[in-house]
Design brief:
single chain, two-stranded parallel ribbon, 24 helices
């Protein structure tokens, strides 16, 4: 009798789960073998270069912008003392509650030609429509700024969690050697937090690749808009799948680079003293500079657009507290809560299985399971509808032949199918965060736990989960808010008459009813605020002495 070891069984189950998550992506890849009507060849000759150029430029803008804001702000609120620090610790994460397309609506209303800013400028200086130059918000640069303001909390939360977990010994040595805040930041904090920072930037870049609402509203041609046009406007599913495969190449490069950067070194704490970290007291212009640096992204990414949306709702929006919007909010909360729980739970299983096996098989399977984040939700929906439709038809045919009963569609158009799409779409968010957190747990802790008689599962529950609590909360926060904001997959795969806040906002905006669209947009922000604040504060408490 052949006995299968527990490690091999866990690895095999992890591979099965990863392949199940990757099913829609595999369906997209399989569609490349089909022959289309030549639409992709035409796109390659005319638009593909534009898609590649704009996508790369957008990724460069958001990558640099989110890295500077996220890492800088995380260091300042974690390691420095200045006025307003305690409030900014959680306020810096608030833009995460905004979908990028909602931010685009707000700033378009504010900065466009008929908007209040340009109208006040013309009135103040008696200018005509062509007598002055004003930056165009509907541009690639404008889209990059919108995405940067919304996505920098990804880097901020992961970098802050990493800074909070760093050893006090390293900073005491740095102070002993005469290093000030800036030198300690560059020589001590950044190298130790490098896995979390790289993970955050990778998540930002994949979210940028998959964004559709912002670039579509601003008229910027990227791979995401190309997929939508090929599928919806041209009706060519094969061309859409081939463009989606190009997106897969981009995300594969990102994931490979991120994992290569983490492979060469280990980032365990340089000591066991988990006490309050030393704070650098900032005074004078340094204190004001830190306050301004942290306040600007909070104001531009949250406070100002919130005021604009509130004004739009006041002018011509719907009743935010009506029964209809309470129903939309309930649906959104239920989907977001269950989706976050399932995604983080599966990510913890996959990450821990890869840690246990240490083999190339589980690592490759996890990489494949992480590909969905760079794919637009509409593409994932199509990739899921194909296998789910096949299973539904197979069950229906068998039931008809065996019992003479038609089962109809059991999976397609259900909450379960929609949650499946969310897990596929946001697995990379949770998995990369969990893996980065697990990488900080020294292998000696696993060995000590096993020596004391704990099983593999017992070690996970008693050792790893308490140590990586901040990372798990960060992953849950990101997935929760992302599900709240997800539009294309929800629009396509939701059950009949099951609408969410995002679907309602899209419908109104599509009809050019932007004032009315501000109401569900504002509700998305309001619903997302509570978990953002609570979980961000909980992350801050994950370090003793705070």
């Amino acid at each position: 009798m052949i006995r299968i070891g527990r490690g091999a069984l866990v690895a095999g189950l992890a591979v099965f789960v990863a392949l199940l998550i990757a099913t829609p992506i595999l369906a997209i890849v399989a569609s490349l073998l089909q022959t289309g009507d030549g639409a992709f060849a035409h796109l390659a000759e005319t638009r593909l270069g534009l898609y590649i150029g704009n996508t790369l430029k957008l990724a460069l803008i958001t990558g640099i912008g989110t890295a500077v804001i996220g890492v800088g702000a995380a260091w300042l609120v974690t390691m420095c003392a200045f006025p307003g620090k305690r409030m900014l610790e959680w306020a810096l994460a608030l833009p995460l509650a905004f979908p990028a397309y909602v931010l685009a609506y707000a700033y378009t209303n504010l900065l466009d030609h008929p908007g209040p800013v340009q109208s006040a400028l013309r009135a103040a200086f008696s200018l005509g429509p062509r007598d002055y130059w004003f930056p165009e918000i509907r541009s690639l640069g404008g889209a990059g700024i919108m995405l940067t303001l919304v996505l920098y909390p990804y880097v901020y939360l992961l970098a802050r969690a990493a800074f909070l977990q760093q050893s006090v010994v390293a900073f005491e040595v740095s102070r002993t050697l005469g290093h000030g805040p800036w030198e300690s930041f560059l020589r001590v904090a950044i190298p130790m937090a490098r896995p979390a920072i790289v993970t955050g930037i990778a998540l930002v870049l994949m979210e940028t690749l998959a964004d559709f609402g912002t670039v579509s509203h601003f008229g910027v041609s990227t791979f995401a808009t190309g997929v939508y046009r090929s599928w919806i406007l041209m009706g060519d599913r094969i061309a859409a799948a081939q463009l989606s495969a190009c997106l897969l190449v981009f995300v594969l490069v990102l994931l490979t680079f991120e994992r290569t950067q983490r492979r060469a070194a280990r980032y365990h704490p340089a000591g066991k003293r988990m006490v309050a970290l030393p704070e650098f007291q900032l005074t004078g212009w340094c204190a004001w500079g830190a306050l301004i640096f942290c306040a600007i992204p909070t104001i531009l990414g949250f406070a100002l657009p919130l005021l604009v949306l509130s004004h739009m709702t006041w002018e011509g929006g719907h009743n935010l507290f009506g029964a209809r919007y309470i129903g939309y909010a309930t649906n959104s909360l239920v989907l977001a809560g269950i989706g976050a729980f399932l995604t983080v739970g599966l990510a913890l299983f996959l990450g821990y299985a890869a840690r246990l096996s240490g083999g190339i098989t589980t690592k490759t399977a996890n990489t494949i399971a992480s590909l969905g984040y760079a794919i637009p939700g509409s593409v994932i929906a199509v990739g899921l509808l194909l296998p789910l439709g096949f299973v539904d038809n197979a069950i229906d045919s068998w039931m008809r032949a065996t019992f003479g009963i038609s089962t109809g569609l059991l999976l397609t158009g259900t909450i379960a199918a929609l949650l499946y799409a969310y897990v596929v779409r946001f697995m990379s968010v949770a998995l990369q965060t969990v893996e980065a957190s697990l990488a900080k747990v020294t292998p000696s802790m696993d060995h000590a736990s096993r020596t004391l008689g704990r099983s593999t599962g017992g070690t996970l529950l008693a050792v790893h989960i308490p140590l990586i609590r901040g990372g798990l909360l960060t992953a849950a926060l990101i997935v929760f808010v992302d599900v709240m904001k997800e539009l294309p997959a929800t629009l396509i795969m939701r059950p009949f008459s099951f609408d969410t806040l995002a679907v309602q906002a899209y419908r109104l905006a599509e009809d050019e009813r932007l004032l009315q669209a501000s109401t569900p947009s504002l509700a998305i922000v309001a619903v997302g605020l509570i978990p953002v604040v609570l979980l961000t504060r909980q992350i801050g408490k994950s370090r003793p002495g705070r």
